[in-house]
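Let us work through a complete example step by step.
Step 1: write down the sequence.
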Amino acid sequence: MAIELSDELIELQRAANQAREQALAGPYSREAWRPWLVTADALQAAVTEHAKATEQDRHKLEVAVKNAARQPADA
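Step 2: predict the structure and record it as tokens.
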């Protein structure tokens, strides 16, 4: 069975990746890391919800989303 992804999940993963990169670019502070933590939490909730709704293995879905987010947006 192929993993069913959504554009929303891929975009959330890309947003989390970008927020993490921005947090790592400067000195540590709670304020600097907050955008990444909020985005990562939203992503995890969305992956869990999508996995339940589509009856997919949550871990496999998360891995597929992470891999898809690494691809260029126009690919």
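Step 3: interpret the result. Residues 30-54 form the longest helix (25 residues).
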